[in-house]
Write a structure and sequence with these properties.
This protein is of the alpha+beta class. It has helices at about 5, 20-35, 45-60, 80-90, and strands at about 40, 65-70.
Length: about 90
């Protein structure tokens, strides 16, 4: 429901949810405006999460932030401890 193409699919479509890209980009600006200058992104290989991670990365970089690490593990992983450790090591 939050995919841009869904909102543009027809004239008689009513959706009050909004486009997820917009809120994800706003989240990147919020993080930057509250002092974050570096970030790590953890998502998955699931299509929606890939898109949101890319939107955040694009916006954060555009406004002057730096993504230190972007992880997209397989969505079937049942533990993200190793992924979290990679983020900790990247500081």
């Amino acid at each position: 429901g939050g995919v841009k193409d869904f909102h543009e699919a027809g004239e008689n479509l009513f959706n009050i949810r909004g486009v997820d890209e917009t809120t994800t980009r706003e989240l990147a600006r919020f993080a930057f405006n509250t002092g974050a200058r570096t970030a790590a992104i953890i998502g998955s290989q699931q299509a929606w999460e890939l898109a949101q991670g890319s939107f955040f990365e694009d916006e954060f970089n555009k406004i002057g932030g730096k993504i230190l690490l972007k992880l997209e593990p397989n969505p079937t992983m049942d533990s993200l401890q190793s992924e979290a450790l990679k983020i900790v090591k990247a500081k």
